[in-house]
């Protein structure tokens, strides 16, 4: 975690301050760390970091694998907050759709609604198959998870699976 070099002051009542102190103590944190963890959850930070790495890496497979692991492992209780804010700007339309499909599939598996930002990403105009082998296209058309199909991306498996 980067060093804290700035201050932020908020005004609270004595009762609110006492309640925050109790909650921070119960969580095993100092008050500053506790308040920050509630306002900026670690899951949201990790999700944002993965999206940044998708923008900067030459080979996005590793970042997509990390996103897969993150979405598969994040608890249902933390999911909505973690993926609520996503900036897909700077990503190719393919990667924007791939990320959106992964998030949609993870939301469905956790029986949660997907975040609103996924609706803003327009599906691909041309189908994208993850393999150039034409003999596998029929299999991919049948086996791709629905969120990927809706986005015109055809893969062999979705979130939580490794190929």
Features:
163 residues; mainly alpha; 2 strands; 54% helix
Describe it:
The protein has 163 residues and is an all-alpha fold. The chain has eight helices and two strands. The chain has helices at 14-27, 31-39, 42-56, 61-73, 76-83, 93-109, 137-143, 146-150; strands at 128-129, 153-154. The longest helix is centred in the middle third of the chain and has 17 residues, at 93-109. The protein starts with 13 loop residues before the first helix and ends in a 9-residue tail after the last strand.
The Rg value, from CA coordinates, equals 19 Å
Structural class: mainly alpha
Mean pLDDT: 86
End-to-end C-alpha gap: 33 Å
The run of helices and strands is HHHHHHEHHE
What level of helicity do the residues show? 40-55%
The main pleated sheet reads as: 2 strands, parallel
Number of strands: 2
Contiguous low-pLDDT stretches (5 residues minimum) are: none
Strand order of the largest sheet: 1-2
């Amino acid at each position: 975690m980067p060093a804290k070099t700035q201050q932020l002051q908020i005004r609270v009542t004595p009762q609110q301050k006492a309640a925050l102190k109790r909650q921070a103590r119960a969580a095993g944190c100092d008050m500053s760390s506790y308040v920050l963890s509630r306002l900026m959850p670690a899951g949201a930070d990790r999700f944002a970091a993965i999206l940044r790495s998708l923008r900067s890496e030459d080979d996005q497979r590793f970042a997509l694998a990390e996103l897969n692991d993150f979405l598969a492992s994040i608890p249902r209780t933390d999911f909505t907050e973690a993926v609520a804010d996503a900036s897909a700007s700077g990503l190719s339309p393919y990667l924007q759709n791939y990320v959106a499909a992964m998030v949609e599939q993870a939301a469905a598996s956790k029986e949660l609604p997907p975040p609103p930002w996924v609706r803003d990403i327009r599906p691909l105009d041309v189908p994208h198959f993850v393999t150039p082998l034409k003999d596998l296209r029929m299999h991919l058309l049948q086996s791709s998870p629905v969120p990927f199909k809706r986005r015109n991306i055809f893969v062999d498996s979705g979130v939580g699976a490794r190929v």
